[in-house]
Design brief:
By secondary structure, this protein is mostly helical. The protein has helices at about 5-40, 40-50, 55-75, 75-85, 85-105, 110-140, 160, 175, 180-205, 210-240, 245-250, 255-280, 285-305, 335-360, 375-380; strands at about 145-150, 165-170, 315. A 3-stranded mixed sheet has the order 2-1-3. It starts with a helix and ends with a helix.
Length: about 375
């Protein structure tokens, strides 16, 4: 494959990895956020934890793989994001740490206070991560302003490297990251994960009080997700559509009409999927409802990444969305690196997918409080 084809291919593969993370880890976040609220007894909380226990850490690997693929395929993109957005990414790391610790430590002590503390840690950590990511993805749609780094900004930067290093424009632009659209993006992603997670719980729990409580919540939060998602997607398509000038300058073809059409098609798909999920979960068709929420999240991710072509979510220092000094053409690795990565991906990605599918198949059974040992309840 030629160089440009490899660059576009790896932008697509990075997007696929992020989509896998958002769909699979999304319901993990939703379940964890709901543990302190929907689990009324220790056994019920244990049921909720056990629905994601065998898969949550495996789902998190999608994030690590997406980050690693970004680092290897687009090092300039990776370096610019991690240097310019250090604090938000550190906040994500904190959320991931307290969330992971909570799952591992909640059963290490029998006291109810101990377990409740770690349940709240899981909920808070699982709230922080999608909130920050939602704000971040919304800002990628708006466009983060970048400029070439200079020795004045970094006295340790050697002159020959200055032409290859970019920096995100600092304050006062920092406070513009929390625009109404960006904040709405963070809230919508949290609500979407709550809906996704509650639908997953209805699929994984046996009939009973807990199942009925979860289904009632899913029907309520589903309406919020539909309204919030519609507002966010309409705002994005009308105010921040994909631009054509940059694609024409970088790739030699104006992709704006195609990308904007994709945006509207995916908006309709996401809306229909959310409505279908809400209807099916209310009528006891949990499997179809879970597929529908997964499709909705996938559609929104496609909209986000299609808007980022080819500027990777960056604009110039003046905030002009029609141009960006950093894009997939000048921010990628060498052709040899991308070729080698493609060969490795072709070999190992099917193996990973097969193993993941097998894991979900093995742990496909529904759980109920009757499956929890009595000593769990007595110990609390």
């Amino acid at each position: 494959m030629d160089y440009v084809t490899l660059q576009i291919l790896w932008l697509i593969l990075v997007a696929v990895l992020w989509i896998g993370y958002l769909v699979l880890e999304g319901f993990d976040y939703g379940v964890a956020m709901l543990i302190p609220f929907l689990g009324k007894t220790e056994k019920e909380k244990r049921v909720m934890v056990n629905t994601i226990g065998p898969v949550w850490d495996g789902n998190e690997v999608w994030l690590l793989t997406a980050g690693g693929a970004t680092f290897a395929a687009f090092p300039a993109w990776y370096a610019t994001l991690f240097s310019g957005a250090y604090l938000p990414l550190f906040l994500v790391l904190v959320g991931l740490i307290i969330r992971g610790v909570s799952f591992e430590y909640r059963a290490k002590h029998p006291e109810t206070k101990w377990r409740n503390t770690f349940d709240w840690m899981a909920a808070i950590g699982s709230f922080i991560v999608p909130l920050v990511f939602g704000v971040a993805f919304a800002n990628f749609i708006i466009g983060l302003p970048v400029a070439l780094a200079t020795t004045a900004q970094n006295p340790y930067l050697m002159a020959p490297a200055a032409a290859a290093l970019y920096v995100i424009t600092p304050a006062p632009y920092f406070w513009q990251l929390f625009s109404p659209f960006a904040l709405l993006g963070g809230i919508v992603l949290v609500v979407a994960f709550l809906f996704h997670g509650s639908v997953y719980l209805t699929l994984k729990t046996k009939a009973g009080e807990l199942h009925d409580r979860i289904r009632k919540f899913a029907s309520t939060i589903g309406l919020v997700a539909i309204v919030g998602g519609a507002a966010y997607l309409l705002w994005q398509n009308l105010v921040y559509p994909a631009q054509g000038a940059l694609t024409k300058a970088a790739l030699g073809v104006d992709l704006a009409p195609t990308l904007q059409l994709i945006g509207w098609i995916m908006t309709v798909v996401a809306a229909l999927a959310l409505i279908a999920a809400w209807w099916f979960v209310g009528h006891g068709r949990e499997g179809i409802a879970f597929i529908s929420t997964s499709v909705a999240i996938l559609a929104v991710a496609v909209i986000t990444f299609s808007t980022m072509v080819p500027g990777m979510g960056f604009v110039n220092a003046a905030g002009d969305r029609t141009s960006a000094p950093l894009n997939i053409l000048n921010g990628s690795s060498s052709p040899e690196t991308l070729t080698l990565m493609t060969i490795v991906a072709v070999i190992f990605v099917p193996i990973v997918l097969a193993y993941s599918a097998w894991t979900y198949w093995v742990f496909r059974q529904r759980l109920g409080v009757e499956n929890m040992p009595d000593e769990v309840a007595l110990a609390s």
